[in-house]
Amino acid sequence: MSRTRLLGAAMLLALASTAHASSFVVTTDTVVRGVAASTNATSDASSSLRDDKIVRAARDDAASFVASQGAIRGVKLESAFAHIRQQAPTLQASDAQLAQAILAI
């Protein structure tokens, strides 16, 4: 094999490994940002509603909701969801995130 071909193959290999590493970094950064946003929403909800009686009363329903992956939705939990969303209308959290926040209190 000529030196030119060897040099070309080495350059292609170097470029391919660089592209693979950078795509891994982008994927990892995206996943980490998503988890951080979810954690922030959960912690914001739990810290501001720690002493709320409606939310505290929904703990058992929240545990059932989380354990059943959303299949069991108790009356107290639905009331707590409505109350939380009324108190914090800009909070962008799913029902699952809110249930986890209620359990974290």
TrEMBL record:
The keyword Signal applies. Pfam families: DUF2388. Residues 1-21 form the signal peptide. This is Uncharacterized protein (TIGR02448 family). It comes from the Bacteria. It comes from Pseudomonas putida (Arthrobacter siderocapsulatus). Keywords: Signal.
